[in-house]
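Customer ticket, subject: "Can you confirm the structure for 5'-methylthioadenosine/S-adenosylhomocysteine nucleosidase?"

Message body: Hello, I'm evaluating your service for our small team and ran a test protein. I'd like someone to confirm that this is what the system normally returns, since I don't have a reference to compare against.
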Amino acid sequence: MSQPIVVVTGMPFEARIARGDGVRVVCAQNSTLAGELEATIAREGARGLVSFGTAGGLIPGVTAGQWVIAQKVLDMPQQAREYVTSIAWADALHRAIPRALRADMAGVTAPVVSAADKAALFRESGAAAADMESHIVARVAQAHGLPFVVARVVIDPAERSLPPAALAGMRSDGSTDILGVLRSLAGNPLQLPALLRVGQDAGRAKKAMTHGRQIVALRLGEGFGAAMAGI
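Agent reply: Thanks for trying us out. I re-ran your input and got the following:
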């Protein structure tokens, strides 16, 4: 049996979109991801790693639903150490999604919530977007001598701060806590318009991810796997 491509996500909805034949999906939060990814590689092997899902926008003007294919991953917890993604894999993804932005991705340990913090991270890193898994994927890929690529969709634009209810609705495992959202809204109903915009942005991001998965044959299994194996 051939080794799978291991697709890494941080949120359950991202994992549901990513699943397909020939792909092993690892969905874990920042603190446990490295261990789960190492265990999967030890148990099943891997042809390469894909960091797939959503990211927070850092460049002003980039809207929700914009694909970003990383040229480099900047490991911000390790003084912005740089990891270069597989050029062949990234080129293949860009041919399939020509409107995707080719730029750097910043790896962070916590969500970048406010517009001011996003602007500060952009000034520091020059990255187009930030997520909490790609730097860990990059570390593990380098440790095992594996190719890796990052394909992420912007879910919250740089100019927008996330309201407290959006964060209250995120459980530690990445699933949605509806009661947490309602409690936050009850305490501050004025954040409802901002929360509705977050929901609209999330809808655009999910639609882009699903469509992109199809056109890239991110039936991330047999189609994507065959394309990657042939590179």
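A couple of notes from the result: The beta strands are 5-9, 23-27, 48-57, 67-75, 81-84, 101-107, 129-131, 148-156. The chain has nine helices and eight strands. Feel free to reply with more questions.
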